[in-house]
Amino acid sequence: MMSKTALVLLAVLAAAVPGGRGDDKGEKPTLHLRATPRFTFSPAQILFTAELRGGDDVEQLYCPEVEWEWGDGGKSVQESDCDPWQDGTAIDRRFTERHVYPRAGQYRIRVTLSKSGKKVVSQTIEVTVRAGVGDPTMEY
Question: Is 26-130 CATH 2.60.40.10?
Answer without folding.
Answer: yes
